[in-house]
From TrEMBL, chains A, B:
<comment type="function">
    <text>Converts the preformed base xanthine, a product of nucleic acid breakdown, to xanthosine 5'-monophosphate (XMP), so it can be reused for RNA or DNA synthesis.</text>
</comment>
<dbReference type="GO" id="GO:0016757">
    <property type="term" value="F:glycosyltransferase activity"/>
</dbReference>
<comment type="pathway">
    <text>Purine metabolism; XMP biosynthesis via salvage pathway; XMP from xanthine: step 1/1.</text>
</comment>
<feature type="binding site">
    <location>
        <begin position="128"/>
        <end position="132"/>
    </location>
    <ligand>
        <name>5-phospho-alpha-D-ribose 1-diphosphate</name>
    </ligand>
</feature>
<dbReference type="InterPro" id="IPR010079">
    <property type="entry name" value="Xanthine_PRibTrfase"/>
</dbReference>
<comment type="subunit">
    <text>Homodimer.</text>
</comment>
<keyword id="KW-0808">Transferase</keyword>
<dbReference type="InterPro" id="IPR029057">
    <property type="entry name" value="PRTase-like"/>
</dbReference>
<dbReference type="Pfam" id="PF00156">
    <property type="entry name" value="Pribosyltran"/>
</dbReference>
<keyword id="KW-0328">Glycosyltransferase</keyword>
<dbReference type="InterPro" id="IPR050118">
    <property type="entry name" value="Pur/Pyrimidine_PRTase"/>
</dbReference>
<comment type="similarity">
    <text>Belongs to the purine/pyrimidine phosphoribosyltransferase family. Xpt subfamily.</text>
</comment>
<protein>
    <recommendedName>
        <fullName>Xanthine phosphoribosyltransferase</fullName>
        <ecNumber>2.4.2.22</ecNumber>
    </recommendedName>
</protein>
<feature type="binding site">
    <location>
        <position position="27"/>
    </location>
    <ligand>
        <name>xanthine</name>
    </ligand>
</feature>
<feature type="domain" description="Phosphoribosyltransferase">
    <location>
        <begin position="45"/>
        <end position="157"/>
    </location>
</feature>
<dbReference type="InterPro" id="IPR000836">
    <property type="entry name" value="PRTase_dom"/>
</dbReference>
<feature type="binding site">
    <location>
        <position position="156"/>
    </location>
    <ligand>
        <name>xanthine</name>
    </ligand>
</feature>
Length: 189, 189
């Protein structure tokens, strides 16, 4: 996606071989026109797939997900992150490990918003190790619903998430794919 | 706002005299068409006010804020919530007490995204005691920028937030205002 690649090149800050900072347009300050275009692109990729729900996780996934849901004309759900929960029978819960924060969180979705007839498009801002995406996919499957695909704004292709998700049988669509951040430079796939 | 009132009437669940659950369209599952209309309404209310940034707080504020920012054609920033932070000199930090969760969080915005020339519209999903809105306003003022107004999706007018903000000199625009949740019934102002 050309507009997104340009943003990454002009505004992305390479903090290390592993970390790309995009807080000027994606995960702190957000560019609403870019988010609309991201949503339009995911909707185009999944047109004809009879998506019934868009699912993401708070917080940075919400803007691209609501724009995608608007284009597809379906509800959006954002999973909540918690440190840990007492068991409740009206929610779907999965554990997700964050490599960045080195902690395990529980993510939750209310049972009443996902059912076995749902065809779900998962959206997230970044794909690195795939922990969040796998957690969201398990939430969908716990509800008996189908994961139609996983739409990612920025994939760090040098980390294993995309490969692991595809090996597990999921369709993954990343709008930009980064091959390397070595030498302080963004190299696309 | 008629569409929003209808949603509150048909899908809002009165949990107590104090608590209205709107997780089917505003703060867990979200209705993207409603969010677009909410954004359009805030943009209409602040047309001509030369807004340069929309500011909200994660997570439920993000969807209405990104739609408002899209309509106004300005960047959106979401403040992050943290338990507590070691001091860093590149961020604006304010303490916010949550009556719901009975805890104090710190909210942060990177200094580079707000400056003294900014004219900021603050957006949030709910207004009850006003703690979050006051915290966001203090962040804006710490940066030397101006709070032009505070746009709220649902105001619980029987709690003091709106009055306190207006007494402090802020313009507050709430799209629906709830006078009471007594007897399990939503009564609008």
């Amino acid at each position: 996606m050309k507009l997104l690649k340009e943003k990454v090149m002009t505004e992305g800050i390479v903090l290390s071989d592993q970390v790309l900072k995009v807080d000027s347009f994606l995960n702190h300050q957000m560019d609403p026109v870019l988010m609309r275009e991201v949503g339009a692109e995911f909707a185009r990729l999944y047109a004809g797939e009879k998506i019934t729900k868009v699912l993401t996780i708070e917080s940075s996934g919400i803007a691209p997900a609501i724009m995608t849901a608007l284009e597809l004309d379906v509800p959006m759900i954002f999973a909540r992150k918690h440190k840990s929960l007492t068991l409740r029978d009206d929610i779907l819960v999965e554990k997700v490990y964050s490599f960045t924060k080195r902690e395990t969180n529980e993510i939750t979705v209310s049972k009443k918003f996902l059912n076995k007839d749902d065809r779900v498009l998962i959206i997230d801002d970044f794909l690195a190790n795939g922990e969040a995406a796998f957690g969201l996919a398990r939430v969908v499957e716990q509800a008996g619903a189908s994961v139609v695909g996983i739409g990612i704004v920025i994939e760090k292709s040098f980390q294993p998430g995309a490969r692991l998700l595809e090996e597990a049988g999921y369709r993954v669509d990343s709008l930009v794919r980064i091959a390397s951040l070595e030498n302080g430079t963004v190299t696309f796939v």
